[in-house]
Amino acid sequence: MLDPKGGNLAPKDFVLVMAQDGLVHIFEALPADMTGRLSGTPVERSDLWQVPQNDSPQGNGALLPPVVSNGWIYAVGLNGKIYGHSPVLAAAGGKGISGTPPTPWAVPLYPVPGQVAEVKSGPTFGFIKSKSSGALIQTLSVVARPPVTGGVNVVNNDNIYSMPIFVSSDRLQVMNPNDLITPPSTGYILFRNSFPSMPISSYPTPEVWATNPDGSSVSVEIDPSYWASPNSGIVPIRVTSGTIGPNTRVYMTYAIDYGPATTAWVYAPPSYELPPKIWTSSGITPDLSVGGCPALGPNDTYYMGVNWNNTTGMGGSVKSSVYSVWFDGNRGGAQLKWNYVLHGGGLIPDPTTAPGSGSASSPVPISDPNRWGVWGIYAKNDAGVYVGVNGLEVNTSPAVTNDKVFVTATTKDPSSPSGGFLLCFKADPDFTIRINRPLRDSTTGGRLDVRIWQPDLLTDPVANAVAPVTAAQIVPRDMINYDTGAITITDFSRVRVNGMVGGMVVPTNTITPALPVWVYIENSPVSPSEVDLSNWNNLIWSLALPKHGGTRCSGISSSPVVLGDYVYFTCDDGYLYAVSVDASPTDKTFRVLDPSDPESQSWMPMRDPIGSGSSGGSKISVAGAGGVVAVPCSSGLYCYGHSMNLVTDNHRVLELGADGKVAWSCDAVFEPKLAAGVVTTTPGENVYGIESKSLNKVMVAQKFGPSDYLVVDSGNDRVLRIDRGGQVTWSLTSFTDPRGLLRSGEPKSIKDPVDARMWSEFEYQDDTLYYVIHTLVVDKGNFRIVDIIDRYTTGANGQIGGPANPDSYGKATHELNWVSSTTYRDRHYSFNSVQLVRTAGNLGGQTAEFNQIWASLDNFGLGSSGIPGSTSSAGGTRTGGAIVSMKYRQSAGQFKWDYMDGEVIGQLSTVNVGGVQTPLAGTRYFAIINPSGPNGPIIIVCDGSAIYEVSGTDVTWRLTEDDYRNLMRTVTNGDDQSRERMKLDIPFQPQRVQVLPNGRLLVVNSYAGPTRDPSMPKFVGEVFEIDRGKTEIYWYAPDIWVYPSSGEKLQKMKNAPNLDQPTCAQRLY
To answer: CB neighbours (10 Å) of residue 782?
Structure first.
């Protein structure tokens, strides 16, 4: 955040600590010493902000860490209050901002004088989309337990408290609909936002806008009278241009002002109590408490471990569940999306015999592979037998990545094969039970009564047995498709199990996907063979940590952290683990990821512990950000680089791990194609087949998501987006030219593309707002750069619709939006790489955004005859290279652009190398480090034989072939498998370079052929990492093996064929 005490408010990295004394302390994060290296020593403590805790009784909750967002610090006191303060705004003193800066505030979780909520975990920051208004709400969430005030028959479970901080695109509701027909004399119309009990902050300035169903806009503003005494979310809206009608939609983006600490206590943050809620008179006091801080996933859902206290479920062997809760601050709209009970099997009443009797029948195991499958958490013991795992507890925070949730759990049961487990769940599946027959009366067509039953693990299902047909719960009708027989549970809290307590049948636990379900229709059982539960159990796999030195793993107190393609955590014995997020169960029957299975390549424990496993009595934990995994322990802070690399070569896209192993690769892709001339039995029905094609001369790849890659397949004249299975999800080979930008005869297809950039944005075209995906392609074979767009419609609330101009496949039509003016005969530029550069400039006396296209090429300055010059380049081999800038577009209002012709307007063709003006060589690639450096743009460039950094026109650093051949590297001795250090005389043809966050460089050497070392007659290219000191290669692939016995040197990949002239490498984080 900005440094509030630095005078100039410069951005810095800080570590904030909440202490018992009520102070938030600030430390500069890993400051540099005098040599510029990270010192690891904190600066002197600075009390950035004092949190008062003497204005209400002290609580006995947990001490929670503060969080920072948008310059605001939020802290939770032991007194059950949430505090907010912006030291940056206070330091700015209101200068350069509009509106009145909010003052520090304090809001109690439980707004009753003398009553204090017990804080448990948090705070958690995240964004949730409101189901009612569609608004995107930035929320601050805290887990706490309110005091008991309802008498002896009430036990409070933990609550999730959710405080809205910033609300975006909130659709306002008119207070009096008649005002839209007959405007009131006040000149404004009163609207209500989603939080009418709270005033709106004047800083940042709220934004309001209005749209009509036909897409036209109405100019509106907040009436100035509101700011005289803003005391609620009832907002006066004044029309400045146009007319608001009954169908006009009015939206507002705003921050909520919780006011000074002396007045805001009256506000009660909305809360959601974790189910099930059970009266103590029932004889059960489950006392559900959250273990660790909830994680907010991308699907607006909280994930958390929930511990069961004071229960005897399954003989006390069930201790925890994993909850998924949807809660946007609206208590009535909250949902328990799933509740996975961590159990290891056991005995239950047999639900298939004597279902209508007054008592339960003989007990049977929960897991029965021959009847209803295996259910629960299992692990393989020393004898190789799978046994159920009991007593698992979750006291950590889950990690969420896209469609998976990772949870670490510990059991103290000495009979368990391991004390530590990593669990992987589907994050947001559809929980569907299929009967596969209509659930209607065959005569009347009326809906049948449907009940489902599970054993209740809150109690002992055998000792407190209830006949299953009696305990079965009626399924809400809105969860049943009566025509297909599909039952989809959307809120597990609405389907409870009836249990026997104190001689009474009462609702106890919710149902869970951790157990099978038995179905009763009109009180008659449905055979388990008719009940399809294939979409019910959302446990993907469980991993039991192996023994360490022959000793059973003692447990896991570390929360998992997902970084890149791995989930990291430490066990309590001090070992660091990295497990692939895409791991699959090695035993699908028991849903187990077995580390002893030789086929399992999904997990990587460190060979040695990084510490004793504890530091001052506290277990070690893991944190990860920016490609670095940090592990604090008793001997210090250990930081590990996460170095998964996306690499392309002549025919593949690969992901290379730090160990040199290929984690994923793709050499062929497939896509559906219309099969022409096929006879069908349905007139007008198209038939599609699958077309498969190998990748050829892959030049560039980028990763957009866990299974989304942009690939420039140059040899096949196309740009693709593919998933990890190799399926083409988007393809660009040709395009249309609706604007007539091409000259007559120019092709509307791409040829030999070598680079591409893709981004998306909202953009007006002809007064219509579209969601536009831009693909900027270096169309090398046609001597041009093209900007191809795909347009999608947008709704009144900003929702993205379907393609605006679909093709025959229903996909967006590729349209030419811009083209460089470089296709004339005397300008046949051979482009290699491209970048979009955003700059600010003056337009009519106002600041406007200008975008340019910068590109590298290797024949700039050559005569029309194609004869190169004779002056040596900065790299020492070729001439004619340059980096040029071209006109692209300038802003013309919000979401509006004026596109310009693609003329070259600037060039960098000569640089200063040690005082000598030197023409650039054929530049293969460049990257902009700083477009506005003190002496001009700072860029890093690859030419024919060197990499160099240029500031303005001065070369400030370079790596030549001489430097490369003198770099030390560690190689493998093939005779005895030892490691040796040496230099290798290898030719250098840099193809690509990436500046890493740690200042090092990831370089692609695409040279392939013989080396100058007779013992190494063949070289296929490599990817390597160096620092700017040019002393050592820290990492490289393929590995080099040296055989002293035969005098050979060979390149070897560990689990795949060698690279074949690599073309691109990108470090993934």
So the answer is: 22
* Candidate from 667-681, 843-857, 1014-1028 with smallest mean pLDDT: 667-681
3-state secondary structure 970-1033: EEEECCCCCEEEECCCCCCCEEEEEECCCCCEEEEECCCECCCCCCCCCECCEEEEECCCCCEE
Q: Which helix (H) or strand (E) holds 615?
A: strand 614-615
pTM, rounded to two decimals: 0.68
For residue 573, give the H/E element and its range: none
Radius of gyration for the alpha carbons in the chain, expressed in angstroms and rounded: 33
Instruction: Tell which wins on pLDDT, 673 or 113.
Output: 113
Are 323 and 436 contacting, i.e. CB atoms less than 8 angstroms apart? no
pLDDT level of residue 619 (50, 70, 90 thresholds): low
Of 271, 220, 257, 223, nearest in space to 242 by CA: 220
The three-state secondary structure class of 542 is strand
Query: Model confidence at 100, in pLDDT bands (50, 70, 90)?
Result: low
Q: Specify whether the CB–CB gap between 508 and 498 falls below 8 A.
A: yes
Binning the chain into helix, strand and coil, the percentages to the nearest 5 are: 5, 45, 50
Q: What is the pLDDT of residues 59-87, one digit of tens each?
A: 556 778 888 877 788 888 888 888 888 77
At residue 703, φ and ψ (nearest 5 deg) are: -110, 120
Upper half-sphere CA count for residue 166 (Cβ side, 13 Å):
13
Q: How far apart are CA 117 and CA 76, in angstroms?
A: 11
The mean pLDDT value for 413-432 works out to 94
Mean pLDDT, rounded, for 876-891: 77
> What is the pairing mode between strands 614-615 and 618-619?
antiparallel
- CA 328 – CA 330 distance, rounded (Å): 6
Strand stretches in 135-193, DSSP E: 136-145, 159-171, 173-174, 189-192
How many helices, marked H, and strands, marked E, lie in the chain?
4, 83
**pLDDT 10s digits, 365-383:** 888 877 788 999 999 999 9
- Residue 946 half-sphere exposure, CB side, CA atoms within 13 Å? 22
Determine the Cα–Cα distance for residues 129 and 297; give it in Å rounded to an integer.
Answer: 12
What is the arithmetic mean of pLDDT over 438-466? 83
Q: How far apart are CA 78 and CA 63, in angstroms?
A: 7
Q: What is the separation, in whole angstroms, between the first and last Cα of the chain? A: 22
Strand order in the sheet with 480-481: 480-481, 486-489, 431-434, 532-535
Q: What is the dihedral of CA 464, 469, 471, 476, to 10 degrees?
A: 170
Distances (CA, A) of 837 to 351, 830, 851, 928, 931: 67, 20, 6, 9, 8
3-state secondary structure of 828: coil
Share of residues in the chain with pLDDT > 70 (%): 80
For 592-628, b where at least 16 C-beta lie within 10 A, e where not — what string? Answer: bbbbeeeebebbbbeeebbbebeeeeebbbbbbeebe
Closest CA to 382 of 219, 550, 248: 550
- Report the C-alpha gap between 94 and 85 in whole angstroms: 14
- Is residue 478 within 8 A of residue 330, CB to CB? The reply is no
Starting from the edge strand earliest in sequence, which strands make up the sheet with 603-605, in order?
561-563, 566-570, 576-580, 603-605
CA pseudo-torsion sign 156, 160, 163, 169: negative
Q: How many CB atoms lie within 10 A of CB 127?
A: 13
pLDDT at 797 over 70: no
Going by pLDDT thresholds of 50, 70 and 90, the confidence category of residue 231 is low
**Is the bond preceding residue 123 a cis peptide, omega within 30 degrees?**
yes
Distance CA 339, CA 961 (A): 60
